[in-house]
Amino acid sequence: MSKASPHVVIVGAGPVGLTAALLLGHKGITVTVFEAGANISHELRASTFHPPTLDMMAPFGITAQMLAAGLTCPTWQIRMHPSGDRAVFDLSVLRDDTDYPYRLQCEQSKYCEFVLAAARALPTVTVTFSSPVTGVAQTAEAATVRVRAEDGERDVTADYVIGCDGAHSVVRKALGIELSGDIYPETTILATTHFPFHERLDGLSNVSYCWKPGGTFSLLRLPDVWRVSLYPRQGQTVEEALEPEMQQELLHEIVPDTGRIEVMQTRPYRIHRRLASSYGQGRVYLAGDAAHLNSPSGGMGMNGGIHDAINLCDKLTEIWHGAPLELTERYSRQRRKVALETVQEQTAQNRRMMAENDPAARTRYHEQLRRVVETTESHKKFLMRSSMIQSLRDLEAVV
Fold this sequence. Notes:
Strand order of the largest sheet: 6-5-14-15-16-13-17-20
Helix content: 25-40%
Largest sheet: 8 strands, mixed
CATH topology of the domain at 8-71 and 105-180 and 272-355: FAD/NAD(P)-binding domain
C-alpha cells in the first residue's frame, strides 16, 4: 500500500498521535498523521513520565533519549510549608516491577521531537503539519477525513482513523460522542524559573506538592528550570494573579527574603474532569485528551494518553493480521475503565486533598500519607497505583 493510500490516518501530532504513528509504523502499517499546527507545540504542557511509559517506549529507543534529556526523580513528596514536614514516596520500592523505578521529568515537546524523528525514519509513516482536519466520515469498509491545506481541501480515505486531536477534537465531534463531566472553578498558573528552590527548601524532592497557609503550590524540577504551579488568592482574578508583581508575591510566599525571581514563561490552564461516552465507533477511534481530560495533579493525563495509543495500536495490529474489527471495542472498554477508575479518580482525589484549606484536615491527610510510607507493603501498593502500573495490569481482566 502506498503512502498516498494509508492504512491508518491519525489526527494530531502531539505525544499520543506520534506514539501511535511510531508503533504502527514499526509494524509495517502505512500511516499518515495530519497536524493543524505548523510544528510541534512548545507550550508549557506535561513534563512527568511514569515508569510504565518508560518501559513501553524503551524498545523504540525513545526512553534512552528521554533519560539523556531529562531529570530522574527517585522520590516525590507532599509537603507542609513553611515547616518542611513531608511525606516522601520512594519509587525504588517498584524496582521488581519496572526497569525504571522513578519518575522522569522531561518536557512533552522533547518527547514529541524524539518520537517524530523516529517515526519519520520509517518508510511507512508520513507526518504533515499545517494540515487541519475539518471533518470525518465513514462507511462499513473505510473512513475518510477532510483535510485543509494551502492548496485547498481534499479527502483522504483509510481503513481506520485515530483522533488524537485534543480537548476540542474534530474527530470526537464528527462522531457525535459526548465529553461529559466537570470543569473545576480554579485555574492553575504554571510558571518557569531558574531560581534554585532546592537550595532554599530543605530536603526538597524534584517533584513536590505543597500546602501553604491558605493555599497550595507545586514544584517540578527539570534539568535547567523549575516549574511552579501557583494559584490566585481567594477573590483574585486570574488576570490579577498573572500580573508580574503579583507573581512575585506568590513566589515570595514560597521563598521569602529573596530578591526578584525571574519568571521566563507563564501559562494559565483550567482543571477538568471529563470523559468521552465512548472511545470510538466503527473504524474511527479516540485517544488522549480527545477521549479524557483530568486534573494534571499526579502527571497522569499525558501518560494515560500514551497508554491509550499503545493499547489501541496493539489491537489494530492484530486486526491487520486477521483479527475481527470488534477487537477495538475491547480497547474502549479497557481504556475507559482506566480513565474512570484510575486516572480521573486518582487525580480528583489528589485535587481534593491539595485543595483542602482546613489546617486540621490537612494534618489528618498528612498523617495518613506518612503512615502509608511506614511499611513497604502499603508504600508499594500506593505507588503501584499512583505510578499507573497497577491499572495496566488490571486491564487483562476487562474482556
